[in-house]
Fold this sequence. Notes:
376 residues; alpha/beta; 3-stranded antiparallel β-sheet
Amino acid sequence: MGELVVGRPALQVRTALSVPLDLMSMMSLLYRAVPGSGLDPWLIGVRRALSWDLQEDLDLLHGFSGRLLYYMEEPVMAFQPLSEERANATIEDLLDFLDGLTPEHFRTLAIRAIDRAHRDLGTELAAPSGDDENEWRRYLEPVLTTADANDVLAMMLDPELLKQRTIRLISGIWNEFYREAYESRQETLREAETAARSSASKGFGMAFAELTGNRLPATLTAALNMASSVTFIPSGHLGDFVSYISYPPELVIFFSAQHMTGNQLKHAEHQVNGEILPDEFVASGQPMPTTELMESLRALSDGNRMRIIDLLSTGELYAQEIVGRLGIAQSAVSRHLSQLERAGIVRVEPRRGLKYYVLDRQQMRSIAEGILFRVQ
Length: 376
């Protein structure tokens, strides 16, 4: 007779539509939507059209809790969007819920996100119990990506600021850009969710293959071990990518609505508020849009990032080579490279298990032309 083991309940696999979860997924894509990312050109256009305040909020709130962007999951999952009573929740319902939370609750959510990132890194750091700035910096710096340590420190010591910026980001992205886009594609999303139910009934493995068109990534296998429920949610802008939220015991996996239905989005893919802003906008002979130029100049406004550009001007380098030549901490180099990548100034080309960084000379020329156009 075989060994006795503790049993686990059967994995529940289902599908759903959720506006709060869809918006959270869209914002994480928007954060990554830089030229050369391969993401939907509509997302790149939206990012270019963001106001300066919204762009700063987007980069800050997604850039201080590790590469998996844990923080923005926390306030949305605290809302329990997959519960039966929140099945038809709106963004207004989410914002009302968040407005009712105390600033200290937001700091608790941020600490939870940062602790998750520390577990990924294998550190043993814990959140400080007081307001000592040096202790907070020691806790924050290993998990920063694009966020500035001073900005994050200010929010952790004044959680009212964290609450305000979180609510402002969600409200701003929804009201200024995403509400109309989401409403225009609801029929396609609903059709995709209905069609996905038959795949979900076949179990997780078959559902994942049919809905995403991909093999199961190793990182998702680990997340699956901690889940008791898997929910597949259609996305309008995911394309060929796989996106998921591991929030035990919930595992949420987004799949492309177009992959499932063959339908195209009803709104023009390359338009934002009626203005055409695809990747080829710069190449068409038009000057670089002001918002993109400002982001590029901000990425260039640091001595170490300029040194990285000087290094890459002689040829591609992998990350450790750059660390060795700069002589600064690897975490700092990673943040600098991330900002240059987000501005489209460098590209990442994975090869043989290494990340090679390459200077995008066309983007540098576009930046120069954008400046010259304004002084002619």
